[in-house]
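Example 3.2
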Amino acid sequence: MMKAERGADGAIHLFFDADGGPHYVKSTDDGATFSAPLSVVDDAARKPGLEYTTWDMAVGQDGRVHVVMGTNAWKLKLPQEQWGLQYATLAPGAKTFSPIRNLNHKPSEGYSLAASGSGAVTASFLSGKVYTMTSRDGGQSFSPYAEVNPLIDPCKCCTTSTTYGPDGRLALIYREETNNERDIYLVLADRNGRQKRTRISTTSWQLQACPMTYFTIRGTPAGYVTAWPTKGQIYFARLNKDGAVLPPGEIPTPGRNGMRTGVVALSAPDGVSLVAWKNQDVLGWQLYDVAGSPLGKPGSVPSRGSGAAAVVLGDGRFAVFP
């Protein structure tokens, strides 16, 4: 997998799987050059046969990089408390990541991260239900994990995706499995615990098994942009700050996906949106105008692996990383 974020200072941060485990690089010239790859996993965390995998990354307003990873501890039959969410940070100017910490000590997956403009960092995960835990001190400590909403019945082998919106609320999307109707839902939550839960997908998907899919949501100045797969096809939608889907509603893209393959959705300041996807070692993308109509033809390049990553540059262009 691969994740990309652009910090408040314009730097591009990439977090990706590589030989030897997850690595990190940084660019300060819009992707023309990158720093030497930095291993995220410290020596103390390495054990025979234990493998770490990339899940998500968030960059705080102070430039601190936050990452979450999974492991194959379950496969090695290690104690279940070791099957949890693995977290590390890279402080501004630091040469190495912090030692890896197991945040939840709980069998789990579907990890995602969000960082707010006020310094909060929220980690989300699946473990039968959807849980979150939040740091108010730059990742030094996190609150105990708490169930987001008892009404949520998530697909157990899909994922979560989180971001902070323009009004500071946490936005989280997940796939439901109630009655085997695999719909995409959005939860908006403020710091006081008030919530709003909305179904945002409209094309139904009746399936008697978890499809094991990934999806994404990102903030925009006016709300959010989000993308997800239904029956193998990628859809996207633009939402206002209250989570309502904007006209023309759910938009089918030319993208197709496989199980657990990456999906990206981003919007530039002028309202142009990018949707990118990975399928069968090909990275594809399509641009859309402010009305949700395609801009030009879809593009694609050969690209190994299952991850898709992109950022919006300072001039409004998109940088896509194969």
